[in-house]
Specification:
CATH superfamily of the largest domain in chain B: P-loop containing nucleotide triphosphate hydrolases
CATH class of the largest domain in chain B: Alpha Beta
Helix content of chain B: 25-40%
Strand order of the largest sheet of chain A: 1-2
Order of helices and strands of chain B: EEEHEEEHHHEHEHEEHHEHEEEEEEE
Distance between the termini of chain B: 22 Å
CATH class of the largest domain in chain A: Mainly Alpha
Largest sheet of chain B: 6 strands, mixed
Helix content of chain A: over 70%
Number of domains of chain B: 2
Largest sheet of chain A: 2 strands, antiparallel
CATH architecture of the largest domain in chain B: 3-Layer(aba) Sandwich
CATH superfamily of the largest domain in chain A: MetI-like
Number of domains of chain A: 2
Largest interface: A-B, 19 and 26 residues
CATH topology of the largest domain in chain B: Rossmann fold
Strand order of the largest sheet of chain B: 6-7-8-3-9-10
Shape of chain A: globular
Oligomer: heterodimer
Structural class of chain B: alpha+beta
Strand content of chain B: 25-35%
Number of strands of chain B: 18
Structural class of chain A: mainly alpha
CATH topology of the largest domain in chain A: MetI-like fold
Distance between the termini of chain A: 30 Å
């Protein structure tokens, strides 16, 4: 995030500094000033972008009264009361488990379907392959609410409403097109000659898949899986509409704090923080793996 | 029947006829080089033999067995790719043993075969490394080792030296030729470099536009090219070929005036005013001189604007712009008809 905000400012500011390079003393001065301005600007934008999360985090440690006070409080004595309340009300564990199961299982199921699909599209393309891929992408443009009615009716008919299986299938279907795309672009990086070499070495299609394609795609599969897991975890539209207390995910827990009982800012913030913390931690720890995944395919 | 026999092999890429009915018989133990300019179909032909492309017409027999539509994995051929195509996630040992492992060979036998190949290729110290940790030349040797351990019926090489630098290329070229002599394995080698073709091959197959222009021993192609294309493709610098009417002295009285005469640079002599005198030569002007130490190339222009290259082993006293006289070894002149085919009754290079 930081880098993205720094770059345009840096290039805009660096130009006058370079132009004044003839007069060394002043150039040095203005370069230092430019650097200070850039740093300040970077911090400003970074904080601006981070502010909602910061505010959420602060509110979670306030009392309900502090949370709604005007002007807003920046200095206060933190309390864990809201967290205690959320846990005391119960259900966090169940919702978290639902989130975990639906996001992990939908991702695994999706990978099992998407990987062979992407493999056949890369290595055995037909005339229709590119069109099909574009169609996949186009399906993501449709707003989910457009398909809500028929899906709801189907789910009702098959008894999938408010079931984990129902959400797993839904999340999987939701991510499937993008999974195929991500794996497709990843597999396309695999040098064709390596597969041909395996074929010359006597590998059947199954051998080739098992010994060459799969091990060389571990990075791509991992990064695709991670991204899709995050999306499934963060999903709220389908989980709010297709599930409730039984199979509901953490999104459902958060939403329940803006219910008829009233709006409890502090508890809502505490619940939200508890909902996003695990996935943020996962993302944080997997940064390295993600980058490794991207560079693993480089052969030369 | 020959060991590897190509009968009327055809390949189409959509409507483009890339390989136009090729017939070729390769004997056991032969080192055959496919050579030709880019786009001539040499790599495609190799890939058809390898089974990496499907054959659209004709048949392919190896050791008496029809392998025309057999998958690559069942053909018992090994291939060395231009990019080496090593398995990046496997060690050198695993790379070299992959085929044997798939074939279910006993691990002890695998170990023995890999060790033997590694010894031949001087790879013994690198068996536990991954391809990433090797230099280009070492990777190339692993690729060759991967082919050797399998003891295949035919070795296929697809421009294996083009990713190496010049010095390493010459060295590896010699190693491959030596290896072939030691193992006696049937080899098909594709290259666009006619020096590689000339130095390594038992037999050179010159391809152009999906067809065989001529095949034969390297010096046979050099001395008796079947046509103008082969004459100019084999040998550097290329043979001088000019319309017969521009050099009537070479055309003699047999060649029609719409034909062409060809003469290799080493058969063109220049008058340097010293010991080399060509009193009856054709007047010319020196355009450019390339002194390579061991030989000297002189580019000269006759007064009728015909350009020729002369190659001499002596250093020259000529300078660009000098006037000189050009003579020819008349016994070494090649005659081509209007279509470029070698012209002469009972020509040895007949197609």
């Amino acid at each position: 995030m930081n880098k993205q905000t720094i770059l345009p400012i840096a290039s805009a500011d660096a130009r006058p500094a370079v132009r004044g390079g003839a007069r060394h003393a002043r150039a040095g001065m203005s370069r230092r000033t430019a650097l200070r301005i850039r740093t300040a600007a970077a911090w400003f934008f970074a904080l601006l972008l981070f502010f909602p999360i910061l505010w959420l985090g602060m509110t979670a440690f306030k009392t309900e009264a502090q949370a709604i006070s005007t002007p807003p409080l920046f200095i206060f004595e933190p309390t864990l009361q809201s967290f205690r309340d959320v846990i005391a009300r119960g259900g966090y564990g169940g919702f978290a488990l639902n989130s975990l199961l639906t996001s992990v299982l939908s991702t695994i199921l999706g990978l099992v379907i998407a990987f062979p699909a992407a493999y056949s599209m890369v290595f055995f393309p037909t005339r229709g392959t590119l069109g099909l891929l574009k169609f996949f992408l186009a399906s993501r443009y449709m707003p989910g609410v457009g398909a809500l009615m028929p899906i709801y009716v189907c789910y009702q008919y098959f008894g999938l409403l408010d079931s984990r299986a129902g959400l797993i299938v839904m999340f999987m279907l939701m991510n499937l097109p993008i999974m195929v795309w991500l794996l497709y672009t990843n597999l396309r990086e695999l040098p064709r000659e390596i597969l041909e070499a395996a074929r010359m070495d006597g590998a059947t299609l199954a051998d080739e898949f098992r010994h060459i394609v799969l091990p060389l795609s571990v990075g791509g599969i991992a990064s695709t899986g991670l991204v899709c897991m995050v999306w499934a975890w963060n999903e709220s539209f389908w989980s709010l509409n297709l599930s409730s207390a039984n199979a509901g995910t953490l999104a459902w827990l958060i939403a329940s704090y803006s219910s008829p009982e009233g709006l409890f800012w502090a508890k809502l913030s505490a619940a939200s923080l508890m909902a996003i913390a695990p996935i943020m931690a996962l993302g944080w720890f997997c940064q390295k793996q993600l980058v490794q995944g991207m560079t693993f395919g480089a052969v030369k | 029947m020959a060991y590897l026999e190509l009968n009327h092999i055809e390949k189409y890429f959509r409507d483009h006829r890339a390989i136009k009915g090729i017939d070729l018989a390769i004997e056991k133990g032969e080192f055959v080089v496919f050579v030709g300019p880019s786009g001539c179909g040499k790599s495609t032909l190799l890939r058809l033999i390898a089974g990496l492309e499907t054959i659209d017409g004709g048949s392919l027999h190896l050791d008496g067995r029809d392998i025309t539509s057999l998958p690559s994995s069942k053909r018992d051929l090994a291939m060395v790719f231009q990019s080496y195509a090593l398995y990046p996630h496997m060690s050198v040992f695993e790379n070299m043993s992959f085929a044997l492992k798939l074939a279910g060979v006993d691990p002890a036998v695998i170990r023995q075969k890999v060790d033997r190949a590694a010894a031949i290729l001087d790879l013994g110290r690198y068996l536990e490394r991954t391809p990433k940790e090797l230099s280009g030349g070492q990777r190339q040797r692993v690729a060759i080792g991967r082919a050797i351990v399998r003891d295949p019926k035919v070795f296929l090489f697809d421009e294996p030296l083009s990713n190496l630098d010049a010095a390493l290329r010459v060295q590896t070229r010699i190693e491959i030729a030596k290896l072939h002599r030691e193992l006696g394995a049937t080899t098909i080698y594709v290259t666009h470099d006619q020096v590689e073709a000339m130095t390594m091959a038992d037999r050179v197959v010159v391809l152009r536009d999906g067809q065989i222009e001529q095949h034969g021993a390297p010096l046979e192609l050099y001395d008796r090219p079947a046509n103008r294309f082969v004459a100019q493709f084999i040998g550097t610098p290329s043979m001088n070929v000019v319309p017969a009417k521009d050099l009537p002295q070479l055309a003699g009285n047999v060649l029609p005036s719409d034909g062409f005469v060809g003469i290799r640079p080493e058969h063109v002599r220049l008058d340097t005013g010293g010991a080399d005198t060509v009193p009856d030569g054709v007047p010319a002007t020196v355009d450019m001189i390339e002194s390579l130490g061991v030989e000297t190339l002189v580019y000269a222009r006759l007064d009728n604007d015909v350009r020729l290259v002369a190659r001499g082993s002596e250093r020259t006293r000529l300078h660009p712009g000098d006037r000189t006289r050009v003579g020819f070894d008349l016994g070494a002149v090649h005659h081509f008809d209007r279509q470029g085919n070698t012209y002469a009754a009972g020509s040895l290079g007949a197609r």
